[in-house]
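ingest -> validate -> predict -> emit
validate: passed (alphabet ok, no gaps, 368 aa)
predict: started
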Amino acid sequence: MIFYAGTWTIPKFYGITEKYNSLIIFISLALLFFANIDWLSLLGEGPKKNPDFYLLAAAIIIAAANLFIIGSNKGCILILANFLLIWYLAPLVDFSEVQFKTLEIFFLIMYISWFLYDRGFSYNTNTGATVTVFTLLAAMIAFLRISGKKEIYAFFAVLAVFRALTLVLWHLARGAFIALGLFLIFYFLIPGKFWSSKLLYRGLCLFVTLGSIVFVAFYVILGSTGVNFKLPFFYKNVFSGREQIWLEVWDILKENIFTGIGSGRELKSFVEYNIHNSMYDILAVHGIIVFALALCLILSRLFQMQAEIDGRNLIKISAASAVFAIFIESFIDMDLMWADYSPLLLFLLAEIHRKKENVVQESGEGKI
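emit:
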């Protein structure tokens, strides 16, 4: 949390930690893994009893082997390992009530700091807007807790959302706008029964994972027709270069579909190696075998997550709404896998899997 706070409150600190955040997160997750998982016993029990553990291990081992085979930069293995470890560990790490409350207060304070002082221009302005929205999604847990004690406190949650929206529009941040808008739709408009419907819920899970790859293909095909138009409020074209990145990456990937293309390549279509789609990044960087293993692990955890989402528990609905909103926002960006947001993703998933808590129930007067 110290590194998260420093990264998103002190721009100079961000410049230093950006280089090492993946390693810092990996060390932290590795400590959580060995403190909570009896991996030797899991190895002895075999894949039938613990398929997710073997999916995790196989994905990381094959991804590492691929990087050696193609001679790519090895550091990108940390990004994949961190992402998969978060999904694997979220339902298994036994956070105490004190730790949960500390994290809730931490993200609330982090959001308040951005509420009071917009640091967007000290970072990339799109990044500034995105971290504000993402931190709000985590801070909503605390807002819901205090509003559950006294409904008048819900005013602060409404004010927080309005402030985030104005900041997003000020910085013309499309991704942040998508994440905030989708969160509000999932939380306020989707009925509680949706979360208990196996068909609808699993359909959503498939959409945010496999649908991300379908979106890339559709976007590239549509972009190649030459059609384009500007988005209202953002003064940006719908097709502004991502289709060129995705097409160039595919031209390289189709010759290396099993091993992936690794990282650190120079792209003609963009100034840096940024694929701008989290699921497509796994496929492109690590190949189709690793992608299939990672997909199975993520879907397994998402399907298991449904049992934890009570349609009456507003905190778990809020956390789930945030996770799916970030998933869809990452159709056009890398935020779902970015190390700087890893603590936030782990926190949201842990809240969903939280066993003992004072449940904030939905009242007849609405969710907030």
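The CA atoms of residues 227 and 239 lie 8 Å apart.
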